[in-house]
Amino acid sequence: MADKKEKTIEKKKLGVKDFITVGIFTAIIFVVEFACGMLGYIHPYIVASYVVMIPLVGAVPMMLFYTKVEKFGMITIMSVLIAIIMFVTGMGYLGAPLIILAGVIADLIARSGGYKSFKKTVLSNGVFNLWICANYFPVIITADSYRKDLIDAGYSAEYCDSLFAFVNYKTIAVLFIACFACGCLGALIGKAAVKKHFEKAGIV
Amino acid sequence: MNIRLDPRTKLYMILVVSAVVMMSATTPLLWAVRIIITLVPILLLIAEKRYASAFRFFALYITALVLTFCFLSEESTGIIKSLLTGYCGIIAQFLPAMITAWYVIRTTKIDEFVSAMQKMHIPDGLTISLAVVMRFFPTIKEEYQSIRDAMKMRGITLGGGSIVKMIEYRMIPLLFSCVSIGDELSAAAITKGLGGKVKRTSVAVLRLSAADIILLSGFTAAAAVFVIFKYFI
């Protein structure tokens, strides 16, 4: 049984078209993340609200992406790409394991539904969105030195204090749950948007 | 002046710059290292005759640095100062990496990039996806601008004040055009023989030139100085 399953998966190897799809959607997701990230510099409370904003706004491209995923690996590659881009744009490497782990688990969940089951897709999107929490990793793991770093880098103490009031090892669980919930909620909204615009137009 | 750098050098530059940017600069020497490695991509942009963007980046970076050093400190409070802190912080922190990334994206041809990645034995899947991401940022910007123009022409500015509509009006057309561009891209990629079983050959011959070696060693030295002076002295 398992052997047979493996064979069918091997048959479905990823092609160039899949890689290109992954690339395009990663770029779009990153633009969404970047746009929301810019807002975070206005006030630290907005940094905490990434977990709400990014899943909801990013849901539409994500759900469109899920309609194009048919093989194992696409979501995983996307998470690796996000980890690379996060590193290149100076967000650090601490979050990379979490990002990739979230990607692999999301991929596995979606695969268990054959990439067609809507329930599994919602769940998978929720898990995938946990990568956003990787943004907070430097804040939590290295709290003290990170605070010093920020102040040295020219941030005001006020900014740091409100940032750490909202993001610390006590609230990270809440942030994780909020992230997951918004990911699932976003999936529903995204599905509706995809249905409204893309299925009618016959693109999906 | 025309410097053609190897894509591998460029990738190494990105790696060093983003690593250095991640560690905070605390002493004047560390700031000096940081500023020097920021100036290198700006000079390279000038060498590529991209004067406008080089000047823009330079002005932005210098303004942010001057503001950070002269006016802002740990004690700054108040709304204007905290806004300024935010903006200067983001610029001083992320601009070096962004300038380098911008330089690399703008000056690396995709075929050079792909063949460099192939030489470094990176799996095809990652290479192709990364190449698409690289190529796609400018495309998204262009598409977004034309969407905005089209909306302006029809007199839709902010989507009637509703945030959901604001996002919907921009996101949906953007996704439509991205999906169709993606289809064209895959057709083009298959024509170029990407993803085939045979190893591809490349017209672009990659060789490390003198400029590459100078930059590689220069950046290595900068990173070494930064780490040594930050953590060991």
For the report, how would you describe the main beta sheet of chain B? none
Specify which chain pair forms the largest interface.
Answer: A-B, 53 and 59 residues
Mean pLDDT of chain B: 81
Strand content of chain B: under 5%
- Work out the number of β strands of chain A: 0
Cα Rg of chain A = 18 Å
Walk me through what this model shows.
The complex is a heterodimer of chains A (204) and B (233). Chain A is mainly alpha-helical and 204 residues long. Chain A has one domain (15-135, 172-201). In chain A, 76% of the residues lie in helices and 0% in strands. In chain A, helix 2 packs antiparallel against helix 4 and helix 5 runs antiparallel to helix 6 (96-112). The radius of gyration of chain A is 18 Å and the shape is elongated. Chain B is mostly helical. Chain B folds into two domains: 7-109 and 206-231, no CATH class; 121-191. Helix content of chain B is 76%, strand content 0%. Chain B contains eight helices and no strands. The relative contact order of chain B is 0.15. Chains A and B meet through helix 2, helix 4, helix 5, helix 9 and helix 10 of A and helix 1, helix 4, helix 6 and helix 7 of B.
